[in-house]
Design brief:
alpha/beta, 2-enoyl-CoA Hydratase, Chain A, domain 1, 2 domains, 4-stranded mixed sheet, globular
Length: 273
């Protein structure tokens, strides 16, 4: 980020937020805990992603972290205390309103979201990265499906995300063994778009986010929506959704500008609407 980034005084210093050149930077900031995400952090991230969808000044999002860890999973010590004994339904409700809401907020954000994975991404931290539209990783980063090590079932959409990214056999291998996956191996497997030296991660994230922020924002949002829905329906539904997206997009100023710039043989100037 440039030194001119507009950063408001954070309501919670464990999640830093800055808007710079149309890019919303969301940074987990609990390096002493390897950025294990608390209840408060989760709610703040969800709110920032929701705001990004509605704010025309935001045209791309980068999700990253400080220190050696991207996100070491969920920090249950940060959850609100239970005032009563657990009853049937509590666990599923907690997952639905917690980890699943966080992953859905990334998937449903109407702006492209880049994960800049600076270190270990474990459990829900790995799923937080995999839910992003593009994943950049430092060469020192690791991804761990840590749930099996604790005798737990993967949550936070892991069993939904991983088979769609790497296929069911690879997904089961990662989930059954819980081995640490290097950034290089994650890139080879298709979980990461680019792996770079640690010192180059922020600059690459800024460069990619800048390109997205200069692009046709509504067209990108519709493309994201089409791709995310493509594996959940049949061809007829996908084709119908594509036609509807084209209909919507052709009403935008950016679509008209893109066509005009092509005809006039000049570089288009997209405004995000």
């Amino acid at each position: 980020m440039s030194g001119e980034a507009a950063q408001a005084a954070p309501r919670d210093a464990t999640v830093l937020h800055a808007l710079d050149g149309g890019v919303s930077w969301i940074t987990l900031n609990r390096p002493e805990a390897m950025n294990a995400v608390t209840w408060d952090q989760r709610e703040r991230i969800i709110a920032l992603l929701t705001d990004a969808s509605a704010d025309p000044a935001v045209r791309a999002v980068v999700l990253t972290a400080t220190g050696r860890g991207f996100c070491a999973g969920a920090d249950l010590r940060g959850a609100p205390a239970q005032a009563r004994e657990r009853v049937p339904g509590d666990v599923s409700r907690t997952i639905r309103l917690g980890a699943q809401r966080l992953i859905a907020a990334v998937l449903d954000c109407e702006k492209p979201v880049i994960a800049a994975v600076n270190g270990t991404a474990a459990g829900i931290g790995a799923h937080l990265a995999f839910a992003c539209d593009l994943v950049l990783a430092a060469d020192t980063a690791k991804f761990i499906e840590v749930f099996v090590r604790r005798g737990l079932v993967p949550d936070g959409g892991g069993a939904y995300l991983l088979p769609r990214l790497v296929g069911p056999q690879r997904a089961k291998e990662l989930m059954f063994f819980g081995d640490a996956l290097s950034a290089a191996d994650a890139e080879q497997m298709g979980l990461v778009n680019r792996t770079v030296p640690e010192g180059e991660l922020s600059a690459l994230a800024a460069a990619w986010a800048g390109r997205l922020a200069a692009g046709p924002t509504r067209a990108l949002a519709l493309a994201k929506q089409l791709v995310n829905a493509s594996l959940d329906g049949d061809r007829a539904a996908a084709f119908a959704a594509e036609a509807a997206a084209q209909e919507i997009n052709m009403t935008t100023r950016d679509a008209a500008e893109g066509v005009a710039a092509f005809v006039e043989r000049r570089t288009p100037e997209y405004r995000g609407h």
